[in-house]
Amino acid sequence: MSLPQFKLLRPRTVAEAVEFLAKHTARVGEGDSPAQSGHVPIRVIAGGTDLIPSMRQKLFEPEYVLDLRGVAEMKGIEPEADSGIEIGALTTLKAIERSETLRQRYPVLSEAAATVASPVLRNMGTIGGNICLDTRCLWYNQSLTWRKGCGFCIKKDGDLCHVAPGGTKCWAVFSGDTPPALLCLNAEIEIASPTGVRRIPLQEFYTGIGDNYRRLQPNELVTRVFLPDAAANYCGIYRKLRVRGSIDYPLAGVAVAMKRSNGHVADARVAITAVNPAPLLLNGASAILAGKAMDEALAESVGDLAARTAKPLTTSALTPEYRREMIRVFTKRAVLAAAAN
Ligand SMILES: Cc1cc2nc3c(=O)[nH]c(=O)nc-3n(C[C@H](O)[C@H](O)[C@H](O)COP(=O)(O)OP(=O)(O)OC[C@H]3O[C@@H](n4cnc5c(N)ncnc54)[C@H](O)[C@@H]3O)c2cc1C
Ligand code: SF4
Fold it and tell me: Could you list the pLDDT tens digit for every one of the 341 residues in the chain?
């Protein structure tokens, strides 16, 4: 599958990158999502590990590709002024996996980063690309010929959903590994746009709608990730279900960050991925766990909560029933492992 023709733009600063985006998205209406506007004339590329295969499948055919790799100010892992950690969006997953500071202070993020794809892809893939990753579906991540044979679908070029026929919503699944870990750490992200920069909790970034999954305008960039000091030094565990252990996207994933005191759970947060159109913090998990001594029954009740929150559909090679059961089992195991850590 060949790449479509495009012009490559190579900014050196965030300001220059945003200027290019503003210039080439002027035709897209304010507030339009890519799905609503049909065509976005410019796409951002970081490591390219997801964008390039998608362009080969003709899921995106931009006239311009904005290559961020020359923007030095978006790279690196630095202490923040108030002693949290700041990670540039272009920092590779390998750098995150290998960072001793992150491993010691935010182990759930190191664990999750280390499970993304394969070592070669983690060399190229970035944390910003992982956060902004397109949602996935068996009926969408296919070649143009394949999709045409099925009459396309709501997410791209069509008006029906093969997964939930009769519905008008796209249920494509968010399948990034690091966002659930970042949600457990109460991470924030910085977004640069032509009108300046803003900082938002990562939790507010995702919409839960498969074909319009992130709150990011076509003229905006994710530039930085912030990990608060208050979330440091929690035990961290990440577990994922995938078909091939050496490379695949998660088909269900769970992150746990836990602090213990005197044999009890002092505080804990649990988040799931790859079973909904957005990564989700489990509402109520902290309340179930806080102040309790860990045992099988307690971990099982968090597993049950995860299974109730997950809404897997036939978007992947494994059945929804199996993925729902696995999110229950993996969550229980992850909670037990965090308490034993
Ligand atoms: C075989 C294979 C297996 C994979 N397995 C996994 C897996 O197990 N887990 C997983 O999480 N991912 C997996 N991936 C996907 C991908 O490798 C990672 O998600 C990676 O982190 C993407 O980062 P990137 O820099 O390469 O993103 P890119 O491909 O460059 O970009 C991805 C998307 O994010 C947008 N984007 C990138 N950076 C920014 C930014 N700073 N601001 C705004 N938008 C931005 C792009 O426009 C694009 O839409 C896999 C990919 C392949 C090919
Ligand atoms: S969930 Fe439906 S609309 Fe969305 S990508 Fe899959 S088939 Fe298409």
Answer: 899 999 999 999 999 999 999 999 986 554 444 444 457 899 999 999 999 999 999 999 999 999 999 999 999 999 887 789 999 999 999 999 999 999 999 999 999 999 999 999 999 999 999 999 999 999 999 999 999 999 999 999 999 999 999 999 999 999 999 999 999 999 999 999 999 999 999 999 999 999 999 999 999 999 999 999 999 999 999 999 999 988 999 999 999 999 999 999 999 999 999 999 999 999 999 999 999 999 999 999 999 999 999 999 999 989 999 999 999 999 999 999 999 98
Distance 324 CA to ligand 2 centre (A): 19
Which ligand does the CA of 238 lie closest to?
1
Distance between CA 36 and CA 30 in Å, rounded? 11
252 lines ligand 1 (CB under 6 A): no
CA of 159 to the centre of ligand 2 (A): 10
For strands 221-227 and 188-193, give the pairing: antiparallel
pTM score, whole prediction: 0.96
Closest atom of ligand 1 relative to the 127 alpha carbon: 21
